[in-house]
Design brief:
Distance between the termini: 64 Å
Number of helices: 13
Helix content: 55-70%
Number of strands: 6
Largest sheet: 6 strands, antiparallel
Structural class: alpha+beta
Order of helices and strands: HHHHHHEEEEEEHHHHHHH
Length: 398
């Protein structure tokens, strides 16, 4: 059980991490929404379908951004604790380094478990459903071919024309000219129509219109008014409506059940192997980031100590660990011998960081690099003083 102060730190870590995750997820969602906007504008889908597609894409993206959301939230929390002198008070009251280490590691473990649920179940299920929905859209004949204001010949002797589309996917001002029968020609005119699927058939349900029937041999015309009329599109739509799922869109059971002796196994065994490793190792990243946070920001610092460099170092080390993990996972496609490396990167960083922390040591930037950074900082500040009126030489000249 966590002590009161530890529960307080844990609560702040989780709250700020969730806020960072929501902010990053919002930015990612907007980016994904803009990319999928053509589903509404070009393919005639409804806003509800558009929102469903972008929502299904989010779990996969959340897996990617969650470790960095944890870093951002934790940096904000630990920096705030130090700025408010709370870390100093904990240290002065005799609290050990574990008072801060325990809530940070519990928060990182909680994040890791949540990520494991996403990588092994939630994200693959969402990606699976997303692929199925895109397949439905791709085989939607009218949505993909018929364009407002244009006469489109979908099949030989079959021409579609629509005046526009409603916000719910309704086709407005529909005209179908069907001359496929050499004996009789049909022209369908409807105020509006909707494509529905029932009993394995795609039907175009037209409402409030007329059917003009013309006998080609004598030109006899007959007109029939209707309130509702169903036009069968099944023979015109693509027959192969079964989606082909990528490794990232498969369940863990499907990935492990792949038979390497089958044609699919021979073709995709390496990709499936890499996908399994990626799903199992990504949740280990928050643990590695947690110990980096402890080493760089877990101790109280005075106002004379540069905490900005510690924050900068935290982000740099986190990016390096993520890059090394990505490289190791990518290498598993070419060789199974890279699998231990993919696990060793986050676990090795975690073990090394805990060892350093438990032995009451701390990481610091090497003195030559620190002096170089200080030199660059001073040069920049001198330039700023010269450029800003009232500072430096310009201010004295005035």
């Amino acid at each position: 059980m966590l002590a009161l102060i530890e529960r307080y730190i844990f609560g702040r870590l989780i709250a700020t991490s969730l806020m960072a995750l929501c902010a990053l997820a919002g930015v990612v969602w907007v980016t994904e929404a803009l990319r999928e906007m053509n589903v509404v504008t070009a393919r005639g889908q409804t806003i509800a379908v558009f929102l469903e597609l972008t929502a299904l894409a989010l779990p996969f993206l959340i897996v990617i951004i969650t470790p960095f959301a944890f870093v951002i939230g934790s940096v904000f929390t630990l920096h705030g604790l130090n700025a408010d002198s709370e870390l100093v008070i904990i240290s002065a009251a005799g609290g050990s380094r574990m008072r801060v280490a325990r809530p940070v590691m519990v928060a990182s473990l909680t994040t890791a478990l949540a990520m494991l649920a996403f990588t092994t179940y939630v994200a693959p299920a969402a990606q699976h459903q997303l692929r199925a929905e895109f397949t439905k859209i791709n085989v939607d004949l009218v949505a993909n071919i018929a364009r407002p204001g244009k006469f489109t010949e979908i099949d030989k002797g079959l021409t579609f024309h629509i005046r526009g589309r409603g916000g719910d996917g309704t086709l407005v001002g529909l005209m179908i000219d069907d001359q496929r029968d050499k004996e009789i020609g049909y022209t369908y005119i409807a105020d509006h129509a909707m494509v529905v699927t029932t009993s394995g058939k795609a039907l175009l349900i037209m409402r409030d219109g007329v059917v003009q029937r013309v006998a080609n041999h004598d030109g006899q015309l007959s007109i029939i008014d209707f309130e509702a009329y169903a036009f069968d599109l099944s023979q015109l739509t693509a027959q192969n409506t079964i989606p082909t799922f990528r490794p990232s869109e498969r369940t863990m059971t499907e990935l492990f059940a792949l038979d390497p002796n089958t044609p699919e196994g021979l073709k995709n065994a390496a990709k499936f192997r890499s996908e399994i490793v990626d799903r199992l190792t990504q949740p280990l990243l928050p643990l590695a980031f947690g110990v980096i946070l402890l080493l760089m920001l877990g101790d109280a610092r005075t106002t004379r100590q540069d905490r900005g460099m510690a924050i900068f170092g935290t982000f740099v080390l986190s990016l390096l660990v993520r890059a090394a993990h990505f490289a190791a996972v990518s290498a598993t496609v070419a060789s199974a011998s890279a699998i231990p490396i993919a696990f060793a990167v986050p676990l090795g960083v975690t073990a090394f960081g805990l060892l350093v922390h438990l032995t009451d040591r701390s990481l610091s930037i090497p003195r030559p690099i620190e002096r170089m950074i200080d030199t660059v900082y001073e040069a920049v500040m001198r330039s700023v003083r010269r450029l800003i009126p009232g500072n430096g030489a310009n201010g004295r000249a005035a």
